[in-house]
Write the structure tokens for this entry.
Amino acid sequence: MTELKTKKPGARKTSGRNGSGSGRPDVEALLNPRNVVVVGATDKPGNWAERCWRNIHLYGFRGNVYPMNPGRDRVWDTKCYRSFSDLPETPDHLVVLVPARFVAQTLRDGAAAGARSATVVSSGFGEFPDPASVQLGKDLAKTIAETGLAVSGPNCLANFNGGGNFVSMIDNRKLRCVAGPIAIIGQSGGLVMALKRTFEERGLDVGYIITSGNEDGLTTADYIEYFAGDPQTRVIVSYVESVRDTAKFLKACAMAKAAGKPVIVVKLGTSDSGRAAALAHTGALAGSIAAFDAIAGDAGAIRVSTLDDVIEAAELFLHAPLPKGNGLGAITFSGGLRGLLFDQAATNGLPFPPLAAKTRRRLEQLLGVGSIIGNPLDSGFAALNSAETYIQCVKAMLDDSGIDTLLLQEELPRGPGSERKEDNLRAVNALAAKSKKPIAFVTMISHGVNEYARDLRDDLRNVAFLQEADKALRSVRSVTSYATRRGPASRTGTYSRRKTAIPAIVTKTLARRTDNGKSQPLSELDSKALLNAYGIRTPKEKLASSAVEAVRIAKEIGLPVVLKAAGAELTHKSDIGGVLLNNRTVSAVREGYGTIRRSVARKAKGAEIDGVLVAEQVAGDIELVIGAVRDPEMGPMVMFGSGGVALELYRDVAFAAPTLDEISAGALIDRTKAAHLIAGYRGAPALDRAAVIRALIAVSRLACDLGDGFDSIDVNPFVLRRHGGIALDGLVVLHGANR
């Protein structure tokens, strides 16, 4: 049996604590068992049960461990028990490695014998669409619910509690088993182990690993809630394939953020498959990732794109205070890195603001140069000539009010001989201990970290060490967004008073849903009536069923008018020749009516047309889109962006949770390029931003009132003027009643 490497002097410091008192006794029982029963013990070489048995002993678990197999008396040179009743004490935690068809009964027997928790390593519970395995998964979930066992899995690699010396994982590779500030939860065991190994190399200790598998018992949300209350844990990392219970997940993320613990998430769902059947622009542009970023982001989750980004973000969270804003400052010794930082800052939407005049004067005096000092500061090697000069330059940058995060070019030495560099690192670390602004060293390229570097890093706990400019600035962006993002708004008193007058029209709208389980678009007239009820202004318009009636309505409204085909099945009218603008004369209206009827009959065969809508022609300064979509995983969210024909071309859109108020609606606008047009771009007059905010809040309220009764709400275009705004088109798609 391989022996553990003993901790040498100067190795990373750990707390050694065990148990959390987090208010989740179920997860506590899973991670801190009194004893362990390995169910499915066998002498077959290299089998998973043997790996589990070996690791539990190898890492010093302090309780008893019992192998169990109904057909064996001895295994692994130790006594093997045939049933739970044969055990010398009440079983506490079960590691289940038996074929899938026996798992449910094993859990029932274990629970009856007094077990509190179990890890089901076995697979075959619906990972693939086989009817028999899907049924086994349903049976397992039912068994877990009936027994009340705290169960991780099935289809997982088991768990790790470094502070409790409990490692039931079936991974053969050596692990550093200590308490640590990072907890990892993942539905992929192989992926979380890769994260653990990389964290170790970078000198970051992982205290917990849970491989959650199919999550037929405990879910990611349960584990996040546990770690939110665990005093050892400071950063929670999660690999999520699907969110099992959205409300619980959002609540857990909010609890973690309230406790000052970021939840860094790698999330599947960037494909188009979830939006292929969308009927409206909003549904087509949204996706599960956009929904996750909007809804879970407000709750406190930080989604990153790659596993590398997990490492960099955790490094920054653990070793630097949160920034107050997004302004960057940097000191480099290479013009090349300075250029890379400029490029990657622009890519990630982070500014390098000009230095204040006072800061420039200080730096010019320190460096002995008379040229204009810029940000990033490329000091060549002048600042390194003395430790005092270098530290004074760092202080000058930190004192600049426009800088929220300071980046310094440097990497950890991997051997002796760089005393000046190490002295500078220690001096910056001492300065960072007193600074309220985050300081991070950034390398030019990713590289390995050896034992010498890790030991040095152990003494530099107040600064982050980030690798490579792009990864570094992606992590800075993620941390800055987390630090500055406002959580979901609560409903205002104004809304509570208005809401009593709204349900009648909502109830009438939902009553129109069919029972065939298909999405049902409302006609433009009905959609606009619903929008009107929520205070969104629409043009003067009426439905005409003949050319004569169209002419009469046009005269009432006043020429010129817009003619549009009307019908619940006509969701994209421009594509079928169903829209005619600038009808300035009676004859144009008369001819236009017939043109639209013929075009729709030819290009939308079989679609019912209710008539032709005659509407006032409205001119505006810019066209915007406002909408909402109900994501099947995360629920409703609101969209805003540039509208009209530019919507699909540029996709200048942003999403947010549907509990908008004035502040959060304004923040949503500011995440788009359309915000610059509203403010008055290049000398153009400013437009009515307040009108957009009112419309966004109205759509937000409508989405919340409809709940799971809608698929999408689309207001496109919303024409904005210097005073007021108006919805030229609207489409509400109801959710099929049986879906």
